[in-house]
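Practice problem 4.
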């Protein structure tokens, strides 16, 4: 499948690995793929999100607010603990990102992809086929993010006020300005 990826989409997958490492993750999730596709400003996805007033810094800030995978905010709320209040208090005392998981040493080499991130890459291929495009670019990856609406990446976009319809319109407008190669 990767032979169908345009250079920017391949680079975005590499960037997703870097984003995951920088955040101390041991696997690449959909949120890291989203960060990877907006990391370089001249990609289709970055331009489309820029049309919507969303850049890498905003996405990164929203990703940092996601609860760590092992902590279930709803379960904690059931026993009277407000995870966001705890996070806010800890970050006020120790700085932003103080609760982010950090491995004892930075992982090196290839990080495995979570099942949902693999699914995102498959959906990007389907998006390219649906539009009859020969190559998969970051626009297709961004469309895949909003198709998988139950993932951390989709929750990040939603928290930034960006819904699926707006993403579709922005990607289409960007492709109109910069045709798919």
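Answer key:
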């Amino acid at each position: 499948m990767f032979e169908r990826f345009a250079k920017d989409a391949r680079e975005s997958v590499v960037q997703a690995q870097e984003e995951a490492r920088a955040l101390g993750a041991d696997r690449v999730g959909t949120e890291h793929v989203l960060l990877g596709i907006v990391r370089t400003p001249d990609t289709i996805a970055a331009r489309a999100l820029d049309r919507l007033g969303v850049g890498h810094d905003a996405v990164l800030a929203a990703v940092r607010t996601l609860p760590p995978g092992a902590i279930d905010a709803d379960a904690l709320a059931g026993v009277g603990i407000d995870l966001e209040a705890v996070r806010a208090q800890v970050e006020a005392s120790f700085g932003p990102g103080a609760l982010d998981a950090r491995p004892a040493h930075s992982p090196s080499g290839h990080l495995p992809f979570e099942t949902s991130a693999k699914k995102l890459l498959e959906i990007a291929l389907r998006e390219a086929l649906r539009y009859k495009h020969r190559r998969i670019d970051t626009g297709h990856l961004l469309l895949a993010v909003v198709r998988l609406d139950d993932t951390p990446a989709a929750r990040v976009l939603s928290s930034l006020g960006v819904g699926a319809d707006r993403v579709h319109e922005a990607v289409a407008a960007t492709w109109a300005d910069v045709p798919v190669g």
